[in-house]
## 1
Amino acid sequence: MSTFQELGLSEPLLRVLDSCGYEKPTPIQANAIPFILQGRDVIGAAQTGTGKTAAFALPTLQRLGSHASRPRCLVLVPTRELAMQVDENFKRYGSHADLRVTLLYGGVGYHTQVHSLKAGADIIVATPGRLFDLWERHHVHLDSIEVLILDEVDRMLDMGFIEDVSRIIRLCPKERQTLLFSATVEKSILNIAEWALRDPEIVDARSGATSAETVAHYVYPVESYQKYDLLLALLAKTDFKSVLVFTRTKRDADRITEWVRSTSHSVATMHADRAQNERAEALTGFKSGKYQVLVATDIAARGLDVRGISHVINYNVPDHPEDYVHRIGRTGRASEEGEAFTLFSPDELLYLQAIERLLCRPIERRKLEGFNYRFAPMMGTSAAAANTPARRRNR
Ligand code: AMP
């Protein structure tokens, strides 16, 4: 594999990467950086945890050079949390340069964001709704954008941002570089790419849509009414540093948080109904180790980069197979080891089979030794299929 130097990155960036402890480029970095440095449009197929943020941030910082008092790069991301993370990454990788990064997202007041735009931003990292809002109020102009980065586009479409995103793309000058990153590259993504990108180079860094290779993941079959007991038993028996528990609904997230709180574990919750300051506090507390357990809906499944998550537990089998890859991708990030457990009840069989089809292999079934199963757990994939549960999205 090539080195960062061979990819054409400048000396100051090489020094930053050295200080970050990155020894060699990840596949998405090795494949995308040379094209981005050439000014080419790129479609990057990569899930989080693959180093995709550095893949677009490093060459973009190099191309932007130094401060110019007008926004030249716009990064659109689906969630506030991801926006904060991308902002942090740009600041870290660009610490040697005098480029200014401005972060715009909803759920908070306008004053600070407007002020920071007025002070002169080179790079804007934004969620679509707030950016459009600020554009309508004439606080931000996009006619000087040279590089447009659309991150986690599949997620933005999934969250219903297609109209805002399309409008924003049209507000940017036609003469620009466009980089589109998405975990899945399906027809709806290619439809956008067709009109928004020019002769893009497609860089596929998904390891065959498989999950991060350092994650060992297992399914724990159990009747649904025993999931709660099994979750607590797993927490008690597992030697974990930090655990991210995913639930399908906000209500489940709240309930499970209450349960876990009644044990000796410190716990916080993150979902769309929590106020922005509560979500930020939960995340910061989880990152700092104040909370050992974070219970979250999928809003936290993508993009979040929390170092040292040792375990992910899916309380439900995700009903969209890609979500499974994203969820377990929260652990085992960039060469760290991780484990992911999925609690699986018979009514979720079709969802589990969809995940196994996506991964092209079965996931190992496990039984928790010493757990008082009321019914023998369903260990085989070939067990009779149950009814398809309704598809629900409740974040
Ligand atoms: P991302 O996929 O952009 O969310 O990045 C996942 C994690 O990998 C982040 O914590 C990065 O700091 C880290 N990372 C990115 N590139 C590298 C690299 N080349 N070597 C080691 N870690 C990296």
Note: The longest strand covers residues 215-221.
## 2
Amino acid sequence: MKLKEIYSSQNNKKPVISYEVFPPKDDTDGSKLEQLFVELHKLMDFSPSLISVTYGAGGSNQTESIEIIRRIKEELKVSPMPHFTCVSTSTKNIKEYLNTLQKFEIENILALRGDIPEDKTICHDFHYASELIEYIKKESTLSIAAAGYPEGHKEAVSLEKDIEYLKQKTEKGAEIIYTQLFFNNKHYFSFIEKCEKAGIDIPIIPGILPITNYKTVEKMATLCKVEIPQTLKDVIEKHKEDKDYIKEFGISYATEQCQQLIDNGVRGLHFYTLNKAHATSEILCNLI
Ligand code: FAD
């Protein structure tokens, strides 16, 4: 099913549930891939409409991504959404990738620029996600999603400018926006308001990262430049040695976050599962 259909056929106004997974690293014997599907099977109870699969910088895990996408579609019978980054890729590679997706009858794609590699070796065919979106729109019938940043992209000159570029992505053909993770809903609500004012009128789906351990939160917040609210920081600092406490706290924190988002009418919830079912399924159980 295409993105537009997924988000317009909302059942009883319940939010559309979607998950993000990534191809496991160093999986020489394939056991991590099998484990990923064990976890995904556990998450099927919540009737997800979409599962997105991340793309490694420069296409480093393309073969694994394709296999996961195929199995999501054939084994789980859920619409897969491959991510694709363009910053280190040529037009020729993109064309080939689009052909592969067509072969597997994939309908959706999340089109991204990707992070600039540390050694700055970029391919100059595409500079920004908006250019990739324009190309995919011209060359395929795929339904296209884009990334949005409630607190601004880490390189953005300002949030306003970032939203201006986000608008360009919608004008070039993006139909849905999935956001960067955030731990303070205030940023999401204010972002929605600013996007509406800027004339962005497509669904903006919040990305939720359930906190499961201290290190992950710190790493993600630094990497993505997102605020960790002081109250959250205090609890994590105080209990950082108590892994079980952090896990339980993370579930209850994300449950509250999701409930407030639902109460404010979000069209969907996109969970950054980190390839594990437990936290996401607990949150979804709490919400039902
Ligand atoms: P863009 O929209 O191109 O923006 C990049 C920067 O350029 C921003 O600062 C923007 O303000 C600026 N900009 C945009 N257009 C212009 C313009 N015309 N002129 C000047 N400046 C401009 N990364 C991966 O490697 N693999 C993944 O699978 C992946 N999945 C993601 C999923 C989601 C939901 C999100 C939110 C991010 C994901 N990322 C992934 C990270 C993403 O690739 C990085 O954040 C990357 O740095 C920016 O990608 P983008 O598509 O948002 O870029």
Note: The chain has one domain: 3-7+15-287.
## 3
Amino acid sequence: MSKNIESFSDFKLNRQILNAVEDAGFESPTPVQLKVVPLALAGHDVLGIAQTGTGKTAAYLLPIIMKLKYAQGDAPRTLIVPPTRELVLQVERQAMELAKYTDLRIAAIYGGVGAKDQLETLQNGVDILVATPGRFIDLYRKGALHTKTINTLVLDEADKMMDMGFMPQIRQILEKIPSKRQNLLFSATFPAKVEKLSEEFLTFPERVEITPQATRASTVSHYYYKVPNLQTRARLLQYLLKDESFEKVMIFVRTKDLANQVFNFIERKIEGGVRVVHSNKAQRSRINAIRDFEAGEIRVLVTTDVTARGHDIKGVSHVINYGAPLVYEDYVHRIGRTGRAFQSGEAITFADEADLLHLMQIEKIIREKIPEKPMPGVIEIAETPFNEKQQIAREIDHFKRKEGPDYKGAFHEKKPRPIKKSSKSGVKKHKRRRK
Ligand code: AMP
């Protein structure tokens, strides 16, 4: 690829998709997205070796949504097969999020529940079908699934699928769908079984391998504080920034809104100058902010992960993670901003209860423990407001569901809707549907 792709708008995606990406809070593409999206858009078969936490789901969903564009006919045109019910629901949720400004119909089918609702969903028409292998075969045998229009197949977490003994079902699925199609196969690891599957299933695939960059610069010391809520985070931040050794500080936050809030707080309370960088800022303002920060004209740069990947900013004394990153690899990218070129640096993470779970996963990737530092005694711990408590509980629930397929959920969530009934664009489905 000759053109340098850095942001989502550099991909050949339409406005509806870009708006949904923005709403999802994705600031810049992850490495697996940078590689997979253009290849899949160009129609290649792709073999992606990438773990959960790299952004691989959106890497295949975005080109699929782009390719499908709008609702058409009644039978599915894309089939996504993950190994477990939980993963099916997770992929469905992400597909709905990224296709929310289109009228594409997304349906999830999986075992362990009655088939009645799922059958009804299929009858209403489907564009993207997300299915566990067993339930797909069941409903196919019942005559409820029409497979002739399927022209894209995704096998997700293929290694898990093989471990769970799904090879016979996969073979059956391959027999039942048209052989002329685009295939995308994702796997966290690449054992012989998956290699064999990929040989059977992919045609001249483009191979994309993302091994999480797992080495932390040895010049960076890192640790975390347990900080239960936003109010306390702000107090700890203020306390830390009183220390003059924090001379060039990058603060990473997950969303643009939070970036703006932290920026406003620092601007009011802390000396030394501060700027904020995120994807809603014009390119020129971003470049200027980074340049001024590099030149030492401002002390603090608040940013989303737009600047975690890429930009080599020199001489950063401290990186503060205002919460753990959800794309776990970004931890290494973020803290890699400090301790560059043999200078020493410190990376500090503020972690609420949900962040602690993400940190555990990050520890697995970097293969080391991140030490905890006790909260400085002078900091008064604020009460967590109800809304924030709910938000944290929801995130913990989401995490547990993702990690353990059998987790039933402590936080009562609405039953997942099996299909997206309407689109935000307000366009009536029957008008846009084409036969
Ligand atoms: P996955 O590896 O697909 O399980 O994704 C891991 C998490 O990263 C999910 O919570 C996604 O919503 C999130 N995610 C995916 N792509 C991005 C991105 N470009 N920027 C920020 N978060 C992302």
Note: The chain has two domains: 8-209, 220-383.
